[in-house]
């Protein structure tokens, strides 16, 4: 099945997306960023109210989310890891890589999925860019 993949990333002025498992912004700005992130990743397509959006993230991104906020509510959470054998506590699914995660959406879970959001981290973003244009990101 063909799907539109949405990528969402916050980038600071010098191009950074994270630092030591955290985001490099002042807490007041982060609060506004998190509200915007939630609004985008939870809002479903008109007519898809019976479905949920999907967020796909790497293991480090999952671990950077405070435990009290995991899983991200009202979204199907898929964690990517080549090391884990089972989904981390609270995650809905575990996939070895992005293509495997997307195949999950073509199975029974796919019937429940509306929009798909790729939310980090840097390895996933590199994989997406490399997939879109193999010459864009060096190995």
Model description:
The structure is a single chain. Helix content is 30%, strand content 18%. The chain contains four helices and five strands. The protein has helices spanning 27-42, 59-64, 98-106, 122-132; strands at residues 5-7, 52-58, 75-80, 93-95, 113-118. Strands 1-5-2-3-4 form a five-stranded parallel β-sheet. The model has no long low-confidence stretch (mean pLDDT 86).
Task: Provide a brief overview of the structure.
With 139 residues, this protein is α/β, with parallel strands linked by helices. Helices cover 30% and strands 18% of the residues.
Number of helices: 4
Assign a percent range to the helix content.
25-40%
CATH architecture: 3-Layer(aba) Sandwich
Overall pLDDT: 86
Total domain units:
1
Strand order in space, largest sheet: 1-5-2-3-4
Largest sheet: 5 strands, parallel
**Mind telling me the C-alpha Rg?**
15 Å
User: What is the succession of H and E elements?
Assistant: EHEHEEHEH
Share of β-strand residues: 15-25%
What is the name of the CATH superfamily?
Dihydrofolate Reductase, subunit A
For this structure, the CATH topology is Dihydrofolate Reductase, subunit A
What is the C-level CATH assignment? Alpha Beta
3D shape: globular
Q: Write down how many β-strands occur, each being a DSSP E stretch of 2 or more residues.
A: 5
* N→C terminal distance: 28 Å
Which parts are unreliable, with pLDDT below 50 for 5 consecutive residues or more? none
Q: Class by helix and strand content?
A: alpha/beta
């Amino acid at each position: 099945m063909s799907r539109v993949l949405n990528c969402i990333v916050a980038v600071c002025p010098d191009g950074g997306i994270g630092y030591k498992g955290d985001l490099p912004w002042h807490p007041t700005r982060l609060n506004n960023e998190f509200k915007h992130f939630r609004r985008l990743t939870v809002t479903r397509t008109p007519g898809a109210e019976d479905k949920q959006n999907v967020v796909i993230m790497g293991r480090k991104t999952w671990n950077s989310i405070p435990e009290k906020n995991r899983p991200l509510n009202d979204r199907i959470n898929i964690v990517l890891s080549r090391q884990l054998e089972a989904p981390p506590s609270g995650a809905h699914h575990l996939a070895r890589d992005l293509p495997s995660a997307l195949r999950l959406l073509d199975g029974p879970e796919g019937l429940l999925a509306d929009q798909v959001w790729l939310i980090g981290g840097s390895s996933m973003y590199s994989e997406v860019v490399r997939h879109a244009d193999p010459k864009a990101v060096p190995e």
